[in-house]
Design goal:
The chain has 437 residues and is mainly beta. The protein is built from 7 helices and 23 strands. The protein has 2 domains: 204 residues, Alpha-Beta Complex (Sulfite Oxidase, Chain A, domain 2), CATH 3.90.420; 122 residues, Sandwich (Immunoglobulin-like), CATH 2.60.40.650. The strands form 6 sheets. The protein has a 5-stranded mixed sheet with strand order 4-3-12-7-8. Strands 5, 6, 9, 10 and 11 form a 5-stranded antiparallel sheet that branches.
Length: 437
């Protein structure tokens, strides 16, 4: 895609650093309304009525501070506060086939880059199998010198590695091709998560069985009722593929592939086969249903792109975003996520005027290979309508395309790999909605 040119006149006002004040002087001013605003430069434009008046009573002692809390033994496995019960996975709708469904990560309610295990997005083709790990087996065969069946105990004996990577369904944001119908960022971008994955490098297992020199492809098959299967290039298997049994420090959840899954960093999510049971080594792609009738990209001339494995660079502003409301003018932090299946995020630009001007947003560390990267930028909102956008550039130089650029190259008949710049329209009343700017 061509690289959009930066405007020479960025319109995002820089935010001054908060000035320090002597401790005693600060507390002398803390009870005065105007003094409270002055002591907090980032909120200097907030409404004065939000400041604490001088005659305010001392901070009350709430009931929960007057008595012991719940016994620790009531919580053998930690759960979120009941006040966060709205932060859950949500489905876009039921699929027409039994057991085929998806649920989405609530990106706008999360912080940092790691997705809590219970909020990792789901995509199933035949429901969630309940597998006994003691009976589960992984077989590696085909063009292997020493075909072998591995138990879970066998796999746990191999040296393990842990890596942080994003996982994204190739259908993520697929609803954005034609009409911006998604009401919030969870529904538009929620088939995306980022976790720490722990397991055995697939290259170790392939060395264990000894693959033939002519091997070029591997069929990966799951143990679910759909026998979900995809063809994997051998070079990817040796590059960075993992056979995973743990996620975010604990064993995989059933919906994430318990007790074993394949993980291919940067590749479309359905290739990271869950409930992994078989790896067959061959010379050609196996042309499974999921890579012929499904997961191909229709082009304007009637042909289709096949084996479009990589998830190209993409970004989205999560705060503020549709479903949220800016209740007052003044300082706000624009924050979001950027990622690329090609490597690390190099830069993220933010626009508040629909792409007419851009300003570079600082990246929060760590900036990892094929992982979500958090960006944030201070902004003073004057109450005027605005169109918020973000644009990522990865370390290869790939620039996230505009919607017009993507459609010019791919047309409007695809369901997968939509990675165009996303626009949120902010109205004068502080509400936001999904638009095509």
């Amino acid at each position: 895609m061509p690289t959009p040119q930066d405007s020479q006149a960025p319109q995002l006002a820089p935010v001054a650093a908060a000035a320090s004040a002597p401790r005693r002087a600060f507390f002398r001013r803390a009870t005065a309304a105007l003094g409270a605003v002055a002591a907090t430069p980032l909120l200097a434009q907030a409404q004065v009525q939000n400041a604490v008046p001088a005659e305010a009573a001392p901070l009350a002692v709430p009931d929960w501070s007057r008595q012991p809390g719940e016994p620790v033994l009531w919580h053998p496995y930690g759960q979120p506060s009941e006040h966060e019960r709205h932060v859950v996975r949500r489905s876009r709708g039921n699929a027409p086939f039994p057991g085929a469904a998806s649920s989405m990560t609530p990106l706008a309610d999360l912080f940092g880059i790691i997705t809590p295990t219970g909020l990792v997005f789901e995509r199933h083709h035949a429901g969630i199998p309940q597998i006994d790990p003691d009976q589960h087996r992984l077989v590696i065969h085909g063009l292997a010198k020493r075909p072998r069946v591995f138990t879970m105990d066998d796999l746990l004996r191999f040296p393990s590695v842990s890596r942080i990577h994003f996982l994204e369904c190739s259908g993520n944001t697929g609803t954005e091709w034609r009409t911006p119908t998604s009401a919030n960022v969870q529904l538009s971008h929620g088939l995306l998560s980022c976790c720490e994955w722990t397991g055995v490098p697939l290259s170790v297992l392939l060395d264990e069985v000894g693959i033939a020199p002519e091997a070029r492809w591997i069929l990966a098959e799951g143990a679910d009722g759909a026998a979900m299967s995809r063809s994997i290039p051998v070079h990817k298997a040796f590059e960075d593929a993992l056979v995973v049994y743990a996620q975010n420090g604990e064993r995989l959840r059933p919906e994430s592939g318990y007790p074993l899954r394949l993980f291919l960093p940067g590749f479309e999510g359905n290739m990271s086969i869950k409930w992994l049971r078989r790896l067959k080594i061959g010379t050609e792609p196996f042309q499974t249903r999921e890579e012929t009738s499904k997961y191909t990209d229709s082009l304007p001339d009637g042909t289709a792109r096949q084996f479009t494995f990589l998830m190209e660079a993409k970004s989205v502003i999560t705060r503020p975003s549709p479903g949220q409301v800016l209740r007052q003018r003044g300082f706000h932090e624009i924050s979001g996520l950027a990622w690329s299946g090609l490597g690390r995020v190099k830069r993220v630009d933010v626009s508040v005027d629909g792409g007419r001007s851009w300003r570079e947003a600082p990246l929060q560390g760590p900036v990892l290979n094929r992982a979500l990267t958090r960006f944030s930028l201070g902004w003073h909102w004057d109450g005027s309508p605005a169109v918020l956008q973000s644009r990522v550039i990865d370390e290869t130089g790939y620039v996230q395309p505009t919607r017009e650029q993507l459609i010019a190259a791919r047309g409007l008949n695809s369901l997968y790999h939509y990675n165009a710049i996303q626009s949120w329209q902010l109205s004068a009343d502080g509400s936001l909605k999904n638009v095509h700017a």
